[in-house]
Amino acid sequence: MPRRTLKLGAVLLGVGGPGQHNTWLHPEIPGDASVDVHWYIARARAAEAAGFDLVFIVDSQFITENSPHHYLSRLEPLTLLSAIAVHTSRIGLVGTLTTSYNEPFNVARRLYSLDHISGGRAGWNVVTSGDAGTAGNYSRDEHYDYPTRYGRALEHVQVVRGLWDSYEDGAFPRDKETGVFFDPDRQHALNHKGEYFSVAGPLNLERSPQGQPVIFQAGDSEEGRDLGAAVGEVIFTHAASLEQAKAFRTELRERAAAKGRDPEGLLTLPGIQVVIADTDEEARAKEDARLGTKSFDRALRELGRPFGWHDFTRYDLDAPFPDVRADAQRSFRTQAEAITKLARDNGFTLRQVVEHLNASARSPFVGSPETVAGTIEHWFEEGALDGVNITVNAPSEFALFTDRVLPILRERGVVRREYESTTLRGNLGLPVPENRYTAARRAAEPAALAP
Amino acid sequence: MPRRTLKLGAVLLGVGGPGQHNTWLHPEIPGDASVDVHWYIARARAAEAAGFDLVFIVDSQFITENSPHHYLSRLEPLTLLSAIAVHTSRIGLVGTLTTSYNEPFNVARRLYSLDHISGGRAGWNVVTSGDAGTAGNYSRDEHYDYPTRYGRALEHVQVVRGLWDSYEDGAFPRDKETGVFFDPDRQHALNHKGEYFSVAGPLNLERSPQGQPVIFQAGDSEEGRDLGAAVGEVIFTHAASLEQAKAFRTELRERAAAKGRDPEGLLTLPGIQVVIADTDEEARAKEDARLGTKSFDRALRELGRPFGWHDFTRYDLDAPFPDVRADAQRSFRTQAEAITKLARDNGFTLRQVVEHLNASARSPFVGSPETVAGTIEHWFEEGALDGVNITVNAPSEFALFTDRVLPILRERGVVRREYESTTLRGNLGLPVPENRYTAARRAAEPAALAP
């Protein structure tokens, strides 16, 4: 068995870490980076040059004036990734698509098309849309409730995976001598009839290089974790502390095992904000300076998002934190509950909650290259993560990681030295699911198909 | 007013002209061209080098064993065009997306994303899906009937166009000095509530280089023509004869004028199969040879498509043509009716219909370079077309057109010598629709906004 190695992802223009609310102000990042395909291509190529496994594109379909800057106007993930695909050759391309407002046939086709275009580097970050307002852009009076959102998501992924198995290898002989283009015996209609979807199939796109593009998932709610354990192959999460990360990864692996899956087929990649300088002290000063730039007013407005964009500006800042969890029932419920619990447990006022959240945006991955490398290695060896998703976009800051931290991790054998495969699945070391019909054929005629 | 010039489109792997049923057998075309992004990029670059206005990608979401070869397995249009976009710089990129099985918000966003990625070269071929079986891939018991299909299509396009006006120019100052990223006064929610769709908006993507990507349309039914006259800017059609083409273009222009539109904003581009050789005689022989390659059996099966994939193999070939128009009510009704009328008017048997259709697949654009150039010029000057959509994929055949026919047309001033714009809209000479809110602002404060 090959040695387990740390996986590397780069989140392009995600928002979440300290100082990221005003990424657009960074002198090295063009103000219109989120609509500039050439900026994305350059970042993906830099990540590929450093041997990263994947780039990841976040997404949403609902905005308000208070949305994070780059969310107000940004390229659609699949069109963007397709453009990146033809200017890169090894790095994985992971796009976010919601199961709540896309048809499974269209999702299956677009991701499979990307898998063909990229030579086997497509990944799907499955989301259910947390902004309740999204419903208004899709002819619905209100967003789906949690059980429906996640019930649809699970069935949606199952349908997409079923459509991806529409063709076995060899379904298209395309033999110009004999004139045989197609072998109908290797084409299979899905004929799915479920609770939320009825999809006949087959897909109109043959088996792709990966066969099954890689499934990514990030939900943190009970329903979200259950979905991740059921169908996720890579779980995006956050990493506030070693203990929390370890507990999360352990729980996910146990849930997957309880569902009969091999936990090795489930990788956990927290998004981490690395802050690197020559010395630990300089790095801490750098983080302090960055945290100090966020305005209280903006933080107060952004606090509304998990609560269904609840308007917190209308409350007395020095009164106890208001209970507005009801507004979060069709939004980011788990996040809203965690914030409310934090306020209750500590008796925080609204002002204190905002200040605490700003301060607690501190990253555990701050320090000299040796310190950051050591922390990552420690978390990896302790079983707190299988890889990291770097949320740094400024080229010089990203280069501090690739040029100064990665060499240390490679020296120690934590990170592989070169790409080991041409596919994302191959580089992540994930098993290649056999086509279900080929598997059935093999079971029925073991001799005929023995390797 | 600049001289009217002939527009040029290249249909990549469309099916329709003589001999195209077995394009895949052509020695110059890879058998798997329809899933090979590099093949498409090479063809688009060849068309761009020849100064073509656009490449066009056809699409469908339902297949049967008898579907045209390249339809069985092909890349999804928008992911494909995005990949082509970043390997070309001037040619327009027109993709087919159905209004029947896509949400307007998603369509608006994907096309706008392509317009940003390509620097203003996106076009949308609006279709309603003619294959009734498509419904089964989208959780519907049956396809929409004609009035609903086209009612939805019109409203869908209106919503998409409304979403494209979500932002005026200047909505994103992104001034790093002042810290102003966004000007909410230049963002507008659509708040559409219609018969088929309710879409609040705004879109999460700023005004694109074209402002409004170009709308293409091809329906030939009464409802289809009405949609084209209402919202189409370029109409794809076929061209069996000069008279028919002229009557079609005249009718479309009259319909558009009756709707209060300037007919100059509506271009008609028939798809044409050019067959070129040194002499007219050699060209005719070349076409004969190509027509002769189609098997009767395959033609009989493909005849089923407009009739909702009706199975014609079960009839006596020498009995009168059966009346199966009922099966076409939710499919390609107009095409099915035309075939039935042909059979009735001529008293044709089923066998005669198939033979007649195969023989009538002859192109009017067959001959020496001088003959073909002359025919195109004549049709253009007679008002039968505003441009042609070349349906030839073999590089050597395409080169006969670009290297031998186009120079003649350029010499005569029928085709422009160089790209005149960086956008598709600019190259097609179509007016640039002003943002509706900017227009309203201008009307309200004429002095402030005067140029």
From TrEMBL, chains A, B:
SUPFAM superfamilies: Bacterial luciferase-like. Keywords: Flavoprotein, FMN, Monooxygenase, Oxidoreductase. Pfam families: Bac_luciferase. It comes from the Bacteria. Residues 36-383 form the Luciferase-like domain. Belongs to the NtaA/SnaA/DszA monooxygenase family. This is LLM class flavin-dependent oxidoreductase.
